[in-house]
Amino acid sequence: MSGTTTAESAPAAGTAAAGTPRGRAKSDVQGTRRLAALLLSPTLLVLALVIGYPVLAGFRESLYARGEGLDADGFVVEGDRFVGLDNYTAIFQGDRADAFWNAFSNTTFFTLTTVVLETVIGVAMALIMQQAFRGRALVRASILVPWAIPTAISGLLWRWIFQADGAANAVLRQEILWTADGFPAKAAVVIAEVWKTSPFIGLLVLAGLQMIPRDVYEAARVDGAGPVQQFFRITLPLVKPALLVAVLFRMLDVLRMFDLPAVLIGVNQKSVETLTMIAWFEASNLRYGSAAAYATVLFLYIALIAYLFVKLLGADIIGEARRTRRPRAVRTPRGGRRAAA
Questions:
Q1: Sequence-distant (≥ 6) Cβ neighbours of residue 177 within 8 angstroms
Q2: Distance of CA 239 to the CA centre of its chain
Q3: pLDDT tens-digit profile of 251-280?
Q4: What is the mean pLDDT of the chain?
Q5: Residue 13, pLDDT above cutoff 70
Q6: Burial (CB count within 10 angstroms: exposed 0-12, middle 13-18, buried 19+), residue 256
Q7: pLDDT greater than 70 at residue 78
Q8: Please, are residues 243 and 123 in contact by the beta-carbon 8 Å criterion?
Q9: Predicted pLDDT at 261
Q10: How far apart are alpha carbons 15 and 18 in whole angstroms?
Q11: What confidence category does residue 72 fall into, taking pLDDT thresholds of 50, 70 and 90?
Q12: Among 254, 237, 258, 240, which residue's Cα sits nearest to residue 306?
């Protein structure tokens, strides 16, 4: 008799638990997750077709060689020939190792120098555009003009500036071969890239600055905080999410730089050759397996940089918002607990 009572009371207890506020909240969360997965499924499918398939196809292509090698009769082998990891071995240790490491160092150098300079200049631009003064609209428009110019046109413009008899040498009163191979060519690429893309960071940081309430600065001034203290204690922490997103986008963009150094300096120049340029050069010579191997290595390098950036610098904006909004328990005067935002 007692066993029957216990068995009959178990479903009733489960039904009662499901009817509690906690059970309803858990059910609502599960329903929301299922709805979110259903709504995101078309986007994920498109991303799988647009991104996933090309990545897998490129990796497969890197395992083959086309039109390379000779058969027993001395004729060129036609069609695709499976070579395994030989293309990757040639990149790191073979006859293409010197070109790869030169392109790798150039890509890393351009990424570090341009992103650092763009961040400093972009934040300064955002602070200037944030101020209220006469002619602010004209200043904002003039700052954003370089970002609106196509990269190829920008490269041609700076190529004219960096000519032997161009404006740069006229201002410096020196004869510097900017567009030749060497360190001046790297400096020319850095200057042109920083000039063009600093407004991008400035625009995103300006959007973050406009979200900061003015009352915060007024309270800081009442407490005796100066402009420098306000910048490092208020502006920089509150604008950090927008700044990190801008820096991440710029890093991913510079890591695949191709058009600006190709137009400004030219291809096959060791001082400005990047990983994207060397992959293009291999593909233009019909060495598609080697080009795919370069592209795969570049993809892994970019993915690693993005992962480390997000994990080490805390660019997890959604996670920070969730942790901030998590409710905490507060004791009521009667000794109970209630949720507080």
A1: 164, 184
A2: 17
A3: 999 998 998 999 999 888 888 999 999 999
A4: 81
A5: no
A6: middle
A7: no
A8: yes
A9: 92
A10: 5
A11: low
A12: 254
Handedness of CA 120, 126, 132, 134 (dihedral sign): positive
Burial 228-243 (b: 16+ CB within 10 A, else e): eeeeeebbeebbbbbb
pLDDT of 177 above 90: no
Query: Rounded to whole angstroms, how far apart are CA atoms 38 and 290?
Result: 40
CA dihedral (162, 163, 166, 172) in degrees, to 10, reads 60
Q: What is the largest CA-CA distance in the chain?
A: 106
Q: In the numeric block, which tokens belong to residue 71? A: 């058969």
The whole-number pLDDT of residue 333 equals 47
Q: Which of 222, 236, 209 is nearest to 128 (CA)?
A: 209
Classify residue 66 as exposed, middle or buried by CB count within 10 Å of its CB (0-12, 13-18, 19+): middle
DSSP-derived pairing of the beta strands 337-340 and 80-82: unpaired
CA distances from 312 to 240, 273, 280, 300, 302 (A): 14, 29, 32, 18, 15
Q: What is the pTM of this model?
A: 0.76
Per DSSP, which regions of 55-206 are E strands?
Answer: 64-66, 80-82
- Kindly provide the residue ranges of all beta strands, DSSP E only, lying in the chain, ordered along the sequence: 64-66, 80-82, 328-331, 337-340
**pLDDT for 191 beyond 50:** yes
- Please tell me the distance from the alpha carbon of residue 140 to that of residue 125, in angstroms, as a whole number: 9
Minimum mean pLDDT among 102-106, 131-135, 198-202, 214-218: which range?
Answer: 131-135
- pLDDT band at residue 102 under the 50/70/90 scheme: very high
333 and 339 Cβ atoms separated by less than 8 Å: no
* Residue appearing with tokens 């507060």: 330
Which residue shows structure tokens 């934040």? Answer: 123
